[in-house]
Specification:
This protein is mostly helical and about 210 residues long. The chain has eight helices and two strands; from the N terminus they run ααββαααααα. The protein has helices at about 15-25, 30-45, 65-85, 90-110, 110-115, 115-130, 140-180, 205-210; strands at about 50-55, 60. The chain is elongated, with a radius of gyration of 50 Å.
Length: about 210
């Protein structure tokens, strides 16, 4: 069993959501289930030697001569479970202690609380011994990860830029085609030259005088 990193809750989260996510973050940083099962296993070991069963008018006492030993075993298992919650560094010690106390409760506390406390205690000891927190990545690994993410972002940007340019060119092509259309030519009829309005005479002497 390993822990997981805690997620940051959203900005608009309510009180219940914040409490739930905060509890989940706290639970994932310690052997929560192993400690919980250790405390639950201590309850039947602690209770049955002092319990009285009433059948009609007959009272049956299940107390044994080792009632004090059952009390100590049950309390120790509960204390070890709580210690594993708030001091995860001693989880292996707590797991070994819970396992040994569960085995000792077989002859002392009515077969370990009628096998209920025995089985739960063995499972809790195994969970406490096997739990380990996640290892934080070294500094060079984090730097490499950041560099890889930056490289990926640059590659994605370089791939997206030609696509944008291509779409821009395709939108400019129709405009260029419209601008490249040949304008209509208008045929102009040539104007006739203006006729000379000076009257002509048949007398050559008059023409010489006019030219002089």
């Amino acid at each position: 069993m390993t822990s997981a990193t805690a997620h940051v809750w959203p900005d608009g989260a309510g009180v219940f959501t914040r409490l739930r996510l905060g509890f989940r973050a706290w639970r994932r940083t310690r052997p929560f289930w192993g400690g919980l099962l250790a405390m639950v296993a201590g309850l039947p070991i602690l209770y049955f030697p002092y319990a009285h069963l009433t059948l009609g008018g007959l009272t049956v006492a299940m107390a044994t001569t080792a009632g004090a030993g059952s009390l100590i075993i049950g309390l120790l298992m509960i204390v070890l479970g709580i210690s594993a919650w708030f001091q995860p560094l001693i989880r292996v010690f707590c797991g070994v202690g819970v396992t040994i106390l569960s085995l000792i409760s077989i002859p002392i506390s009515n077969l370990g609380g009628f096998l209920m406390g025995l089985l739960l205690g063995l499972v809790a000891g195994g969970l406490l011994c096997s739990w380990a927190p996640l290892k934080t990545p070294p500094a060079h690994a984090r730097t490499a990860q950041v560099a890889a993410e930056a490289t990926g972002a640059l590659v994605a940007q370089s791939v997206a830029q030609p696509v944008v340019e291509e779409t821009a060119e395709t939108t400019e092509v129709p405009e260029a085609a419209e601008a490249a259309e040949v304008p209509e030519t208008v045929e102009e009829t040539p104007e006739a030259p203006e006729a000379d309005q000076t009257p002509k005479s048949d007398d050559p002497t008059q023409e010489l005088g006019a030219t002089r």
